[in-house]
Amino acid sequence: MRLTDEQWAVLGPLIPLPEKKTTKRGCPRRPDREVLEGILWVLKTSAQWEERPKSYPAKSTCFDRFKVWNDRNVFPTLLEALYKQLADQRLLDLHESFVDGTFSAAKKGAWMSAGRLTPAGSVVESQAALASGRTR
Predict the structure, then answer these.
(1) What is the largest CA-CA distance in the chain?
(2) CA torsion, ordered 124, 129, 133, 136, to nearest 10 deg
(3) Distance separating alpha carbons of residues 134 and 109, to the nearest angstrom
(4) Which of the 8 DSSP states describes residue 104?
């Protein structure tokens, strides 16, 4: 996920400066914008860190920066700034929201667990009754 220059102009100043390195060892620090784009790609796609495209920084760089920024509560600050920008442009109204509950994943056989209703509408008395197929 690539950030536009306009988005980066809003988000960039909100990212805290890195702690000063005490040693000259290691690779040069990757720009925060590139790392944030890699993090956002992983969050948007629900992919694993290893699956990010090679055009983004290394998985360890993205994940380590994600942990640091998460510990410093950077992400709520970034979201607030984006919300404010959208609200100022009248593209978002935080006073009204809708929740879509049409998709709700259920474990296979969850309706048959102990103490729940079976398809016939009777209550399963115990796990043993469930296992033997006997219900009330």
Answers:
(1) 73
(2) -50
(3) 16
(4) -
The rounded distance, in Å, linking the Cα atoms of 82 and 75 is 11
CA separation for the pair 7, 70 (Å, rounded): 20
Q: With 0-12 CB in 10 A as exposed, 13-18 as middle and 19+ as buried, what is 65?
A: buried
Q: Contact 116/126 with Cβ under 8 angstroms?
A: no
Q: What is the mean pLDDT of residues 106-120?
A: 55
**Measured CA distances, 85 to 6, 20, 91, 114 (Å):** 10, 31, 9, 50
In angstroms, rounded to a whole number, what is the distance separating the alpha carbons of residues 19 and 24?
A: 13
Place of tokens 């609200």: 87
Instruction: Identify the pLDDT of residue 60.
Output: 93
**Residue 73 to residue 62: CA distance in whole angstroms:** 16
Give the total residue count for the chain: 136
Sign for the CA dihedral angle at 46, 50, 54, 60 comes to positive
- Compute the distance between CA of residue 78 and CA of residue 10 in angstroms, rounded to an integer: 8
Local structure of 15: helix, strand or coil: coil
Whether 117 shows a pLDDT value over 80: the answer reads no
